[in-house]
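queue> holo job accepted (zinc ion)
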Amino acid sequence: MKITAVGGYKAVGRNMTGVTVGNETIAIDNGIRLDTLQMYDGDTDRLRRYKTEELVNLDIIPRVDILGNVSSQLISHGHLDHVGALAITKPNAPIFGTPYTLEIGRKDYKNGDFHAVPYNQAIDVSRNMSAEFVEITHSIPQASIINVKTKEGDVVYAADFRFDNKSAIAQPDYKKLKEIGSGNVKALIVESTRVKEPGKTPSEEVVREKLDDVVEFIEEGLIIATTFSTHIERVQAILDAAQKAGRIPLLLGRSLYTQAELAERFGLLTIPPEAKTFASGKAAKNGLKMIEKREDYLLIVTGHQGEPKSVLSRMITGEIPFKFKKEDSVLFCANTIPSPINVATRYAVETKLQNLDVRIFKDLHVSGHASKEDHRRLIRMLKPEHIIPCHGDMEMRSAYAVLAAEEGYDINKSVHLLNNETSVGF
Ligand SMILES: [Zn+2]
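queue> job finished
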């Protein structure tokens, strides 16, 4: 068997990995790299103005043609760095994923040959390979660990995940993972984004408690909370905190509108009847106009990374007519994505808010990615013969190799650090 690193093996983003057995290849994930083009909030429209080759050279999409013809395209979850390139690369193969994930894929790529698969249902993905999607917790609904069954053993793809036993919308399927581990796992392809963090990634439950505490604590002024629009469990936590504090939530921003609508349709999000959602910039202006007593409202807006086109940034510049007051509080319910562009834009937004004397609450967040001990647990459950860290720069993937070495793996023999557009066979 051959594993090909297509994208996501140099930096975080534009994830894609190929699995080849005999003369058949399948592709897993087909993502974009968000920071390189300042593409945010689910808006991939701008990308289509570029030629495919340009986007590859700009490090924005994976070089899919190195895999040749693929029998299937599998998608692990709905984050754009895993699904966002579909509309550009247009795979000429059936696309498999969980129902929620494929709804996100379909949004930009209407003509795709999508096949939604429930958890734990084995499906043929080529003549000789089958696959099943295993339920896992991450920071978006219906994320999965994919198990590809081949005649040479199983290939497990775990990007992205964390183990959250107290999630309100998902459960890690330990039983299934152990069952896979009791068989023959030839290779584990696994994310490495936060393997450097010691211990375990905390549960989303921690954020719920922090949010309730802060929102209840704030008595004066308007509350403006910002988070990932795809992080439905967190959006729900903000809505719930608002409701407990007697504030009316207003959701502003196109991606929040789209993602909330999707999650509501799947029964994964409950928007209280008094809440209102405003999709476009114009609607956002009208939404802000309805605010009379500031302490009666809580806004949920896009813009946690300081994205210039987000609602928060445009509220600061006045592009959306709004005046911040000293009593207002901004809640960052997301940490900065560790890329220089994000760090810079987020810093700029925070500085502008400080200059307006607005009160800032940070770190209302836990990561959606596994820490070192989560990773160790996954290795021990699956007992793979080979490990290929993905979804990270060389430093992140090397940190995974250190953990693998602790678990008895040998670098270059059973743990492999690939670069984009290279392969390993065993
Ligand atoms: Zn993800």
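queue> The CA atoms of residues 196 and 395 lie 9 Å apart.
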